[in-house]
Amino acid sequence: MVYPPLRVQMLGKFSLAWGDTELNDADNRMKKIWLLLAYLIYRRSVVSPEEITALLWEGDDLPENTSGALKTIFYRARTLLNKLGEAAGQTLILRKEGGYIWNPDIPLEFDLDLVDDLYRKAASSQSEEERFAFQRQLLDSYEGECLPKLSTTTWAIPIAAYYQRIYMDSAFAVLLQLENRELWN
């Protein structure tokens, strides 16, 4: 089956959009669900239940029935994703090899992939004009801190720092080019 691309934004806010429907992490009561979704999307590989349990209950006491609690979180995550379309939750999150995976058959338009791609293109560009253009595109694509509502989780901290460094490197390079070209506006 051919699926339309799922638009994923993690810079500035965390949102998922499929067709005309968008979900975002505005509801703070659903932090574990959004953390689970972010992790599965970012990893894009099979994740064991034990790894997910460690992620979701980091620093907290584990629930008595960890398996049941994990099933409840997945049920709620899939129910949330169903707002994107009929059976979207079952389509997007799959069971595989005893773990869970974000469906690799669903094409993603992922803002982090775009920023990574622009950063690599700028770094490998032989032309100063081309490098400058890629860096400016990167700055235009950067919507803010990566996963701001999940920024205190151990997993998200290095990712946010990495994308902030990419942004700052590009900003300083663009500022230097603007100064060299005497483009003060």
Written account of the structure:
This protein has 185 residues and is α+β, with helices and mostly antiparallel strands. Helix content is 51%, strand content 12%. The chain has helices at residues 31-43, 49-56, 66-81, 88-92, 111-124, 128-141, 156-180, and strands at 6-9, 15-18, 21-24, 93-96, 99-102, 108-110. The strands form 2 sheets. It has a 4-stranded mixed sheet. α1 crosses α3. The longest helix has 25 residues, at 156-180. The mean pLDDT is 94.
Q: How would you write the strand order of the largest sheet?
A: 3-2-1-6
Q: Name the poorly predicted regions.
A: none
H/I helix tally: 7
Shape: elongated
End-to-end distance: 49 Å
Summarize model confidence as the mean pLDDT.
94
Order of helices and strands: EEEHHHHEEEHHH
Radius of gyration using CA atoms only:
19 Å
Main sheet properties:
4 strands, mixed
Residue share in β-strands: 5-15%
Beta strand count: 6
Q: Decide which structural class fits the backbone.
A: alpha+beta
